[in-house]
Structures are given as structure tokens and as C-alpha cells.
Amino acid sequence: MKTNNVHTFRTNAKKLKVLLISDLHWDNPHCDRELLRDHLEEAKKGGNDILINGDMFCLMQGKYDGRRSKSEIRPEHNNSRYLDSVVDTAVEWFAPYAHNIKVIGYGNHETSILRHCETDVIERFVTLLNNKTGASVQVGGYGGWVIYTHIRGKSTISKSYKIKYYHGAGGGGPVTKGAINFNRMATMIEGANAIWMGHVHESTEITYTLEGLNLRNNVELRDVLMIRTPAYKEEYNEGKGGWHVERAAPPKPCGGRWLEIHFDRSKSSDWMRAFTYKTN
After folding, report:
1. Which of 73, 98, 197, 253 is most buried (most C-beta within 10 Å)?
2. Looking at the whole model, is its pTM more than 0.70?
3. Coil, strand, or helix at residue 67?
């Protein structure tokens, strides 16, 4: 169900494993498709959900883009139907994983296409993918919420795990690696169990512990996971050259992160435990 960019999924499982990925840049020649396929296959084999937080596509090789380069386009997309061919081939490639993918959000690459070319590639991709496979992939936003609600018995709601996702902004930094953005998000987001961003192609997890009062005015501490997922585009190219190297950008990790949510009474004051770990 999607209401006002809030995507809610119900489960009676005591443990969920969710694949969090962003910045796939799937159509870029530097996308590590073998690594991406391995992670998607693992999710499919385990019956795990997949969430995609923006920049699924790169889309920088159209005549509208001053950054375009003939060496940065795959042969199957080098035609007069550039955007259409990217979407069509992506539908075929992702079709085996459609029933595991729950939400796909926008990144700055997709919103750039919307501004300059007046076409919504995420909406088009999801519509075609659902029509082809009978899946129910939902279109997210540049930011939004994914909520997993745990059901006991047939209908009793025991607890909800709330993920605030936002693709990201700014350029990160070689020292902070985008951690400052977590501080900013913490001042404006209330009620999230996890805050998840991508965009700067880093892989981090930081736990913020917050103090609050419960309904009886007793002090309670609550952990909020701050999650940053990296990319599947490897741009460093052994440091030989190119835009990434020439601006003195460092090597970046590739992959995503697994989020495990445990709906159990591990402690009297903590009904849930969650943590992430790298996909590779």
C-alpha cells in the first residue's frame, strides 16, 4: 500500500532480511553487473525484499547532456532511441527479480532527465516491469518512508519498523564520507528506526542513541540506525585517469547493505533489534 509516499508492508515473520541498494547506474559501462546480479540472486533465493534508493540509472549519454562521451555508453544503447532502449533492456534484465523489488525511488540522475527531457524513466520502467511480470513494484520519491508492520496472529499489530529513505545531497567528503548529513537528518526526522541515504557512494552504518520519555514519563533510550549504501559503479579504474581520478576522488566501495530486522522481545524495553552488514 502506498499513501503520500509511505509504503507499508505487513509480515508475520519474526525476522526480516532486506537488501538495501542505491546508485546502481545500471546502464553505465562501469556498473559491476556481475556483483549486482549476485546480490539480487541472493535476495531472490532467500525470498528477501529489495529496496532501491535512487540513481538506478545513469542516463548521461543523450544529446541533451554536455557530459556525454561515446566511450561511456553501452553498444545496445547507442541508437536514436537512447532513453527508450535503456528502459526496455532494463525491464528484461530485472524481470527475474521483479517480485522481490518492493520500492524504487528517484535519484538526481532520474530527476535530471525529468527536468531536461520531460520524461519519467522510473515511472516508465516500473510500469513496464509490472506489466511484464505481474509484480507490484511501487514507485517511491526522492525521499519517503518504508514501514514493515509485524502482525501477530491474523490481525494484531505488534510493532512497526520505520525506514526513512532519502537519496542524498551534496558531495560527501574524503574525511566525513557524508556523515554530516546524518546529523542534519536527525534534526528534522522524527520517529524513524532507520535513516537511509545513498548518493555519495560510501558504505557506512552509525548508531545514534536518543533519549526520550515514555507515556509514564520514564526515561527510555532508542537506537536509530544511520545507513549509507555505496554504488555499483566502479569509477577509479586503477587510478589511471578519467573525471573521477582527475578531481582527486578516492577509490569507493561497491555493493549494498543487508538490513536485518528482528521482531522479538529480546529485552523488556526493546521489542526490535536491527543491524546492517555489507553485501560483499
Report:
1. 197
2. yes
3. coil
